[in-house]
């Protein structure tokens, strides 16, 4: 069920930096003919030289188009590609709701590969970059099912784990796990730097924990202007939650409330221990078949429900019935969570069947 | 000039967990006869079994005594050892001013090896634990010079880099680089956990940066009750600075002030890049000879000045003159900073001479 394509089928990559270049390389490894464009001619020449693209240009007959530009210009590029006749367009921006809203087209599927944020530039491009990474897709009720399944299949073929999340939900989640941690690391580094001006020894005392916590402050600053502008609301919400949490922590320390402190630290330790160590294809899979009405938004509902329940999806396909007004969504999910998923689907009015594989 | 001792010279280690056990092993490797004690009999038996100590007990004739117990009982143990006749006593607690004040003895030198905070227990003990680590000592004007040089020499022999810092200064610095980062990691984990209850996918999105930032939240919670009690003032100061910094960051994001954001992130990135990557013995050394009056506190002043200026000290020795009222402090420092150090010493009224070695 993984996406297969005739050798030489055209694909577009617009913006060939680290992510776009890596996408181009991954596509070429899988037999696609990759057309690349970039606002920077030197980057484009380098992408050609490194084998990230086959040709310069935008090919209207491409079966898939990736927009991997800075987030503020994604919507423009996506709309232009759609207007040129490109069949299915997706992107790789860190913020999704404003982009998905601005494009407003059934053939556009928002995307965000959670990989490679610390490097930048075509010279860091790597066809293996997405192997084992989570690749978020953000279908909505307006997204064409065929566009979603096509994007999901292609990025799955890169070795990425597809996770479907609604656009605004994606933005709220990455504010917590990515944007605010980045701003916090920078702020902590700023506090330390201020004190270090008084006492040069401070930074020599900065052992492993501090080093780990501030590592992301060494990332490329320029993209954060766009991210903070585009995801302002979610970032402010998460920052407020963190500031409130720190103010509570301050009170706990000030009052010397050892029990409350221990409780907070124990909970954090347990939650940290439960972080999934790495996304991996589960070896035990179950096939979930979900008869669905042929109406828009069904695929978005089913796939985002899987993500909400924490159910890992290995593959997805849609079989349309001969009559045309019904279809079956076939998903491969980890066997351990198949019943959980079935329960969720039934609660939403679906009638799924589950078959354990292997 | 490194501490050398006759084989079999006795040393005491009080408290034989991870740090005490590692100290015992490091001492034994260097020919000391190590006497160990611990409030937990099973830990003590295990320390004997693992070769962290030679015998159980406290030996009053020991040339050096390390107290590596939880921070709240360090002062009691140190006073008891001094009362029993132990010549020089030091400790390994994470907070220094309350301990140094409570012991109040010229033969006690506060210490804090910046190593091994994430493991705990005698089974993690390792004689190499201190190799390349910073080991803070906190001499005051009351500290006997001979006690300081003895402790500095022994811990240097473990491969640690000795840094002298005043006790309250130490506490303020570790609040910034260790205690508050720990509490922040736990708080951030708490915010994520709260959101994860709404959406199971959140933690699957937690990629590298979040993982790095929350790693220290997986440390052992129990010791933090003591640390937060003993270092309350400095922790609250540093938490307040962080909360203020985050509130400013929130305003910058809210206003969409891209220039201010970029400035903060660029500064943080530059400061992060300047973190000393690892403490290493400098290969180019200079010998600084500092004639000193024979009065208390001179050694503390000279050594803490070195740390304040960021000058790395590889070794230290005191030569007393025959007349008895004067001496010479001989320090080996990194050659690159020898002039800086000389300037600082001259500003404090000393008349040092510098000789480049090798």
Describe the structure.
The structure is a homodimer of 358-residue chains. Chain A is an alpha/beta fold. The first copy, chain A, folds into 3 domains: 156 residues, Rossmann fold; 104 residues, 6-phosphogluconate dehydrogenase C-terminal fold (Orthogonal Bundle), CATH 1.10.3660; 72 residues, VC0802-like. Helices cover 46% and strands 18% of the residues of chain A. In chain A, the strands form 2 sheets. In chain A, strands 3-2-1-4-5-6-7-8 form an 8-stranded mixed β-sheet, sandwiched between helices. A 4-stranded antiparallel β-sheet of chain A has the order 10-11-9-12. In chain A, strand 5, helix 4 and strand 6 form a beta-alpha-beta unit. The longest helix of chain A is centred in the middle third of the chain and has 32 residues. The two termini of chain A are 16 Å apart.
Q: Can you give keywords for this protein?
A:
homodimer; 358 residues; alpha/beta; Rossmann fold; 6-phosphogluconate dehydrogenase C-terminal fold; VC0802-like; 3 domains; 8-stranded mixed β-sheet; 46% helix; globular
């Amino acid at each position: 069920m993984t996406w297969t394509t005739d050798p030489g089928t055209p694909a577009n990559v617009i913006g060939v930096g680290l992510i776009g270049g890596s996408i181009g390389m991954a596509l070429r490894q899988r037999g696609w003919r990759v057309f690349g464009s970039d606002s920077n001619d030197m980057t484009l020449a380098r992408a050609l030289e490194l084998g990230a693209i086959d040709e310069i240009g935008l090919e209207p007959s491409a079966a898939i188009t990736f927009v991997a530009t800075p987030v503020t210009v994604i919507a423009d590029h996506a709309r232009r590609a759609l207007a040129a006749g490109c069949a299915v367009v997706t992107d790789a921006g860190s913020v999704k709701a404003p982009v998905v809203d601005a494009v407003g087209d059934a053939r556009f599927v928002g995307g965000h590969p959670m990989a490679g944020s610390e490097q930048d530039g075509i010279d860091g491009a790597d066809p293996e970059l997405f192997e084992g990474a989570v690749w978020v897709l953000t279908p909505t009720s307006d997204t064409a099912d065929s566009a979603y399944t096509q994007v999901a299949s292609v990025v799955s073929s890169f070795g990425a784990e597809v996770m479907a999340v609604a656009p605004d939900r994606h933005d709220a989640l990455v504010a917590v796990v990515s944007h605010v941690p980045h701003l916090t690391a920078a702020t902590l580094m700023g506090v330390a730097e201020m004190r270090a001006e008084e006492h040069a020894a401070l930074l020599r005392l900065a052992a492993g924990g501090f080093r780990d916590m501030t590592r992301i402050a060494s990332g490329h600053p320029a993209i954060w202007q766009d991210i903070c502008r585009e995801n302002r609301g979610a970032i402010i919400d998460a920052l407020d939650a963190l500031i409130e949490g720190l103010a509570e922590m301050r009170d706990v320390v000030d009052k010397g409330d050892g029990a409350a402190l221990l409780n907070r630290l124990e909970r954090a330790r347990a939650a940290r221990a439960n972080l999934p160590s790495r996304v991996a294809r589960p070896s035990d899979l179950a096939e979930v078949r979900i008869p669905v009405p042929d109406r828009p938004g069904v695929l978005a509902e089913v796939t985002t429900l899987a993500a909400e329940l924490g159910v890992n999806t290995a593959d997805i396909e849609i079989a349309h019935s001969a009559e045309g007004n019904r279809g079956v969504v076939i998903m491969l999910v980890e066997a351990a969570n198949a019943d959980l998923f079935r329960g969720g689907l039934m609660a939403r009015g679906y009638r799924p069947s589950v078959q354990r594989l292997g």
